[in-house]
Every structure is written in structure tokens, then in C-alpha cells.
Amino acid sequence: MVVGDSRTGRTRDFNVIYPLIKMLAHGYLSTFPADPEAPVHLAPLDFVVDATLRAIDEPWAVGRTFHITAPSPPSVHELFACEAFFPPGTARPRLCDPNTFDPKQCTQRERELLDSVSFCFPYFRSGLTFDTSNTGRLLPLPVTDAAFLDRLGYLRGHASQGR
To answer: Of 163, 154, 134, 130, nearest to 1 (Cα)?
Structure first.
């Protein structure tokens, strides 16, 4: 998922993962279907742009595959443990097995909210890993560690205000 700037976390558009962050920031979800150990592949926007432009300019890049993501992504657990995403006192959703998740156990409002971000579900249960070696030949790979998640967490305030 493409997210904000690697240095600041800032973004111009609040789409893809940001509606989910907004729901979490408001404490609207009590349950979320996800594998806590699944990697969450986040790609800072500036990195995606730089890697794409460099790949266009490199003759050796023709015909090669580039996985434009961080080589060591955070897990779902690490994402949901990030304090920056949750205002103090906000209840965190319980992570549940996506294979046994039954939306009928949620309130009607939660079902509607979960349905609106259901396109994100595969990102939170996939065990996929990506070979980033070609991308690493183009430019240094991003680090999407806890500090990066904290930078993205600033978005909680903006996303929760609808900006």
C-alpha cells in the first residue's frame, strides 16, 4: 500500500489505508479480521516515485520485475500496537482469525464500516514476501519500522478530522 512521505509521513490524499486508520482512531471497530503475524507492505510515496523514475532511466532495468516495497515490513501486530494511531483511551480492536471471522457477530454499523474497507483485508492476512533486490539496485530501500509508523500516525489527527 502506498502511504505518506518517508521522512514526514505526510500525504495529500487520505485513501487506501487511511479510512481504516480513521475508523481505528475513532474507536469505531471492536473486531478486525487479520493475521497478527502477516506483513503489512507499506511503500512511502516518495520512494515509489523515485524507484519508478530510476527504473525508467536504467538500461539494465528493461524486462525486470521490481517490487517497490520495504524489505522488512511491519507485521499487523506492530501496526495495531503503534500508539500514534490511537488517541489515548481509544479502545483497540480485537484481531481475529480472518478464516473464522463472522461479520454477523458485529453491529450493523461495524459491518457497514468493515465493508467499506474490505478491499484492505487481503493486506492484513497475506504472508507474502517480495524480492526487493532489483529495487535495491536502483536506490536505498525504505525502512518501515516503528519510527516510520509513528510518522504515519500523525495522520490520525488529520484523517480523523476528515482532511
So the answer is: 130
